Amino acid sequence: MWGDFMKSIEIIFKKLDKAFEFGSAIILSVMVLAITLQVAFRILDKPLAWSVELSQYLFVWLTFVAGYVGARRAQHIGVEYFHYHTPKPIGNFLKFISNLLPAMYFGVIFYYCVSLWSKLMSQRTAMLKIPMAFVYLGMMIGLFMMAIYYFYLALKVYLGKEESVKESIEEI
Predict the structure, then answer these.
(1) Which residues pair with 124 in a beta bridge?
(2) How confident is the model at residue 37 (pLDDT cuts 50, 70, 90)?
(3) Where are the alpha helices (DSSP H) in the chain?
(4) What's the predicted TM-score (pTM) here?
């Protein structure tokens, strides 16, 4: 029962991976273009007022959207020494906790972002005049996905369905 459910979840994650990787590439490309335009127009002594703000807000989006991609590729920093150099039950408990704690952390921050949504909709950015909520939306998307993914990893450890990190990365 849990095996089929976990496989279905993994298929969904793999499809989302492609979207997040593509989104990260688009965000990075737009950032590079905005910064390049800013440099070119500064050389012409006609700096663009909006390009710095746009690249700052895109950087926020990139941080959290690519953060999910990094989580899926097991690129986030972690201390695995104790997972592998303790008896298996203790190592599994440590793996469970080390996945559950980030899930809870990201979930709490996501919750507070959602609770501030109405205030953020009324606040506008200085140059682009867009609601700050759209700046925080990238953060919320990334946090939500990382929370779900780390909870999924904790569940896999709890159910004993965990594969090695190396096998998981090779599949992605």
Answers:
(1) 131
(2) very high
(3) 2-43, 51-72, 81-84, 88-115, 117-122, 132-159, 165-171
(4) 0.87
